[in-house]
Amino acid sequence: MKKCCFIIPYFGKLPENFQLFVNTCRENDDFNWLIITDDHTSYDYPDNFQVEYMTFAKVKDLIQRKFDFEISLEKPYKVCDYRPAYGYIFEDYIKDFKCWGHCDCDMLFGKINHFVSDEMLDYYDKLFVLGHCTIYRNTYEINRVFMKPYHGAERYKEVYTDSKSCTFDEEYLPDNINAIFRSYGYKILEDDCSANISFRTPDFRLIRYDKIGKKYITEEKTESIFIYDKGEIKRYFKRFGKLIESEYMYIHFQSRKMENMISNENSKCFKIVANRFIDLEVENVKDDNFSQIKKTYRNHHRREYLVKEIKFWKKRIINKFVR
């Protein structure tokens, strides 16, 4: 039986750096990806990718046929709320897999096996609690946990009949899929193995999920650099004069435009800075050359973020008065 298949329905033009994302998945050849999309752009897909070309309307119809009530799925972004149900909705595609998962594609993977062992896949019912990357055991029971009542209500029906995004797939609002899993005693790995980049700051600052306090913590500004190095995602920074190296399962660029300036698209080593992928000046990052590496470049992320925030609040105020 195969290990795990990540399911990614995506409609419209795939992200600008999608090929780079695919290249990092290629390095995890014992994991698989299923892309369901209406974008027929020719990409260099590796053997661990399966692409199913479907229109959004066809996928909506496929999902609707899995439920005996009328679902709300008017826009592609709402598909995220259906992520906990992918094992049920797309069960015909994942019969040969021990596990299935979902992930974003505005990210780059490192070595998944450095963080997810076969023993973990056998033991946990659900690995990780953040929407941008989650893994479930592929069993009849686990694939239907999302249907279980929570505090006396059928939460999934509330979510799937609501036109708004309910963040049902992640640790944000209290009545999410993780809360349902916990309430029935299923085993969840709540470690955060991601380099999740804050979208509120122009520089790279990590947002870490604190599994004890059940909250997100944004780090202070630090002089650091991320490297994609032969399939691994690494971060380097200095603390008390000592060079510190950390490794992550993946790096996630939420709501952040990244420019690809790598001279060789098949490069196995490059640096990741705000807001670009670019060639690394040195062969290996060391204590004596860390200061020589350029870590900051001019970018317009703060302005773009503020524009989005203004549009968001303007829309909310207008909707409030229209009602």
Q: What features would you describe in this structure?
A:
The protein has 7 helices and 18 strands. It is an alpha/beta fold. A 7-stranded mixed sheet has the order 3-2-1-4-7-6-8. It has a 6-stranded mixed sheet with strand order 14-13-12-17-18-16, with no helix packed on it. The longest helix has 22 residues, at 301-322. The radius of gyration is 20 Å and the shape is globular. The protein starts with a strand and ends with a helix.
What is shown here, in short?
By secondary structure, the protein is an alpha/beta fold. It is built from seven helices and 18 strands. The longest helix has 22 residues, at 301-322.
- What helical percentage do the residues reach? 10-25%
How confident is the prediction overall: mean pLDDT? Answer: 91
The parts where pLDDT drops under 50 for at least 5 residues are none
Taking the sheet with the most strands, its summary is: 7 strands, mixed
Based on secondary structure, the structural category is alpha/beta
| Distance N to C terminus | 53 Å
**What is the number of helical segments per DSSP (H or I, 4+ residues)?**
7
Please supply descriptive tags for the structure shown above.
18 strands, alpha/beta, seven-stranded mixed beta sheet, six-stranded mixed beta sheet, 323 residues
Which secondary structure elements does this structure contain, and how are they paired or packed?
Elements: E1 2-10, H1 18-26, E2 31-37, E3 49-53, H2 56-64, H3 86-89, E4 97-103, E5 107-109, H4 118-123, E6 126-127, E7 133-137, H5 155-160, H6 177-183, E8 188-189, E9 194-196, E10 207-210, E11 215-218, E12 224-229, E13 232-239, E14 242-248, E15 250-252, E16 259-261, E17 269-273, E18 276-278, H7 301-322
Parallel strand pairs: 1-2, 1-4, 2-3, 6-8, 9-15, 16-18
Antiparallel strand pairs: 4-7, 5-15, 6-7, 10-11, 12-13, 12-17, 13-14, 17-18
